[in-house]
Sequence to fold (153 residues):
Amino acid sequence: MVPPYLGRMPNEKGNRYAIHALKDRRATMAGEIVQMKEGISYREEQLSHLDAVLRELDPEYRADTLPPKRLRRVKLFGNGELNRLIADALRRAEKPLASHDIADAICEAKGYGRESIHALTRRVRANLSYLLRNKRVVKTGDRLTARWSLPAE
Fold:
């Protein structure tokens, strides 16, 4: 006998939506795995080229003598800090801001150099998209004309 919790849910529509969402998530994950495998094979190829050049310059070179370096992630912001800095920049602004203006305000607030604005703008855009989905910011315009503000209370 099949336990009731393993059987089909009585709500077929709900089941259909859940199945569709799970299939979509699986397809996304499979795509990410394919992309990562392609990245790995590309890096392995580049590594073999580096080894070949090193052997050319140093015939005594052995690849197994160099241990892999551990990558360290630079954490620029604490948990939720970037979202708070974005909200603070929008709160202080007298008009809606472009994402690069928000990044500029955050660089100034955190004391980061001007050279970090380009990289930070990408992080700000990603966080703004997240905040938009959660209705914590309002977007007017599109792409280059996009301006961001806090929702009216």
Strands lie at 138-140, 147-149. The mean pLDDT is 88.
